[in-house]
Write a structure and sequence with these properties.
With 51 residues, the protein is an alpha+beta fold. It has one helix at residues 2-13, and strands spanning 14-18, 26-28, 32-34, 40-44.
């Protein structure tokens, strides 16, 4: 159960965007992989007001 909650909490609090200029090259294997790491920018999401 915790394995589902942790990504949900992180995605609610953080914004993930690809790093500008970084190209993702797919590689065919049993599943689709990236040739190199996928670089992402992680920024906090703006706080939402309730009310």
């Amino acid at each position: 159960m915790e394995a589902l909650l942790l990504p949900a909490v992180l995605l609610k609090r953080l914004r993930l965007r690809p790093e500008p200029g970084h190209r993702v090259v797919p590689v065919e294997r049993f599943v689709l992989w990236a040739d190199q790491d996928i670089r992402m920018l992680v920024t906090p999401r703006a706080a939402q007001s309730t009310g």
